[in-house]
Amino acid sequence: MSAVHGTMSRRVGITGARYVLLVALACVLLLPLVWLVASSFRPAGEIFANSHQFSWRTFVPGRLTFENYLSLTESGFPRALLNSLFVALSTMLLGVVVNSAAGFAFAVFDFPGRKFLLILVLASAMMPFEAIVIPLYQIIRWFGWVDSYRALILPEVANGLVIFLFRQFFVGVPKEFYEAARVDGASWLHIFLRIALPLSWPVVVTGALMQFITQWEAFFWPLVAAPSPDHTLVQIAITRNISFEETSWGRLFSSTTIACLVALIPFLAFQKLYLRNIASSGLK
User: Burial level of 136, CB count in 10 A (0-12/13-18/19+)?
Assistant: First the structure.
């Protein structure tokens, strides 16, 4: 009995030590982010005052100010923030429809060239975006979409990785569901909207989050496709605080803090579904 008790105590101790180690590691990794947020509330002249030493003053502002945040209204940052929200949400909603339909087709229908097309879809997810920037720009210029929301949204709607996630989920759904619905006279569109899509809620959340974050972090393509101030996105607005002459560190840190918080909120809200679906897709 004592041996069993001793074994359990050792296991509890090892588990506790692991948690302590992970918490300590997380705190170390979060220190730069804590310093970033703290510096966004410092006056411009005090941002780097305590950066040469490692103490509590490095991470706790001596004097709080909202001047850095208020000054963002003069730099066009609010417009860029709204632009990014519109682009990211539009891409997310359209992407759920397009990618789920494509994943359903790859999983359910047997058509010529299905495996080859699926390989192309997966290859598109692995290809560096920089490799297709020039031909993609030529296409949107041919359509007359340069410097428009369509140029920012439509090329990012179809996502090879999200299509693969939907395909993996729909493959795991028993075909008896579809066959029973077909016997009852349901169309494939009805089956997709009323049976398949409601079942794939974890994948919908995962795919939506992936596309939202991708668009929220987009920098290179928006800089090329829509350079005007009216279509500036948040990441480009952040970098405009840096120039050869000077860098507005207060605006840079405050705008970065806002951008990080907006991206963090949906991920924290749906992280359980996101991680669960990624894990199950990998196992399948």
Answer: middle
Distance in angstroms (rounded) separating the CA atoms of residues 223 and 233: 9
User: CB-based contacts of 106: which residues, under 8 Å, 6+ apart?
Assistant: 114, 117, 118, 121, 163, 167, 170
44-61 b/e (C-beta count within 10 Å ≥ 16 → b): eeebeebeeeeeeebeeb
Q: Copy the structure tokens of residue 84.
A: 């990014």
pTM: 0.84
* pLDDT per position as a tens digit, 176-228: 888 888 888 888 888 898 888 888 888 898 899 999 999 999 999 999 999 88
70-283: what fold?
A: MetI-like fold (1.10.3720)
CA distance 222 to 230: 12
What would the pLDDT profile of 114-157 be if each residue is shown by its tens digit? 889 999 998 888 888 888 899 999 999 999 999 999 999 999 99
Mapping DSSP to helix (H, G, I), strand (E, B) and coil, where does residue 247 land? strand
CA angle 10, 11, 16 (to 5 degrees): 95
Say if residues 83 and 262 touch (Cβ distance below 8 Å): no
Residue 211 exposed, middle or buried by CB count within 10 Å (0-12, 13-18, 19+): buried
How many Å from the N-terminal Cα to the C-terminal Cα in the chain? 42
Task: Break the chain into its structural domains and give their ranges.
Answer: 2-65, 70-283
Whole-angstrom Cα distance, residue 210 to residue 266?
11
Residues ≥6 apart with Cβ < 8 Å to 133: 220, 221, 224
∠ CA 67-70-76, rounded to 5°:
135
Query: Treating both helix axes as pointing N-terminal to C-terminal, what angle do 160-172 and 249-283 enclose, rounded to 10 degrees?
Result: 30
